[in-house]
Amino acid sequence: MKKLLFGLYAAIVLVLMVWGFYMAIYVAPEDAMQGEIFRIIFYHVPSASVAFVFFAISLAGSIGYLACRRNSPNGAQVADAWALAGAEVGVVFCTVVLVTGPIWGRRAWGIWWTWDARLTTTLVLWLIYVSYLLLRRFAAGPQVQTLAAVLGIFGALDVPIVYMSNRWWRTQHPAPVFGGSEGSGMDPSMLPAFFWNMGAWFAWGILILALRYRVERQQQKFAAEEAQAALNENG
Amino acid sequence: MDEKAILDHQFVVAAYIATWVIQLSYVAWLAFKWRAQKRAAGRTGRNPQ
């Protein structure tokens, strides 16, 4: 039954992705100022949104781990698996943002990169979470999960700074399209393509987040069994 | 199509391809990890669910 539901969800995600692509390329009109290059927004902005939400999941998992690690070891492991899955999939989406952004910037601004507040804070966010993943991959010992949780919490503090950066400071990066100053917003003819792609990328993100969580839980179970077996051998 | 439009199109294609290369590479790595887990579970007689 679980496999059937998973397959059904994966099929829905596939249809959403194809539909989103069709809307982005064939239905949405060209931007009056930027022309066709504007179509990168349909992958760039949803990827940033998914990354932010998944870093928030990682934050919740990290807090959950720190809160539960003494009283509820199993709950702490569940929270830790969500923290890791959120951080890792968030890094994947943040990488997409950091790759598609410069491609867009090269055509729109004539440069691949500039050290403005939005770009720099996004790069710092990516570096923090990459260091989180490196810590989890290469460090050993009983304190790794605790240290990772603390790093995960500090990393998440950068998310609101990234989000607000082009409101707080003058940046090369455009002002917010949604929720910005008066006159901001997107032409109504582009909105369906934008929201379909937003939905499709969130659906895709949830799919791989669930897979990553499942793999991590399995890994935890194996590790616990191995530790128990080692104890039995020594005892 | 003028030269600007052609270049714009090529940059959009590059961005979309880069996105899918990143996403599918990650999914492939995840699938590889999952299979390795299943194999390890099979060797030690554990239930990989």
Task: Write up what this structure looks like.
Chain A has helices at residues 2-27, 41-68, 73-108, 117-138, 144-156, 158-168, 191-234. Chain A has 235 residues and is mostly helical. Chain A has one domain (2-173, 189-234): Four Helix Bundle (Hemerythrin (Met), subunit A). Chain B has 49 residues and is mainly α. Chain B contains one helix and no strands. Classes of the chains: A mainly alpha (235), B mainly alpha (49). Chain A binds chain B through residues 21, 35-37, 39-40, 43-44, 47, 89, 92, 95-96, 99-100, 103-104, 106-107, 204, 208, 211-212, 215, 218-219, 222, 225, and chain B through 4-5, 7-9, 11-12, 14-16, 18-19, 22-23, 26-27, 30, 33-34, 37, 40-41, 46, 48-49.
SSE layout:
The complex is a heterodimer of chains A (235) and B (49).
Chain A: H1 2-27, H2 41-68, H3 73-108, H4 117-138, H5 144-156, H6 158-168, H7 191-234
Helix pairs in contact in A: 1-7, 2-3, 2-5, 2-7, 3-4, 3-7, 4-5, 4-6
Chain B: H1 3-44
Instruction: Give the proportion of residues in helices of chain B.
Output: over 70%
User: How many helices of chain A does DSSP assign?
Assistant: 7
Could you tell me the radius of gyration of chain B in angstroms? Answer: 20 Å
Largest sheet properties of chain B: none
Question: Would you identify the CATH architecture of chain A?
Answer: Up-down Bundle
Note the overall shape of chain B. rod-shaped
Order of helices and strands of chain A: HHHHHHH
Overall average pLDDT of chain A: 92
Q: Give the SSE order of chain B as H and E letters.
A: H
In total, the number of domains of chain A comes to 1
Main sheet makeup of chain A: none
> Biggest interface and which pair forms it?
A-B, 28 and 25 residues
Q: What kind of oligomer do you see?
A: heterodimer
Report the count of strand segments of chain A.
0
Q: How large is the count of helical segments of chain B?
A: 1
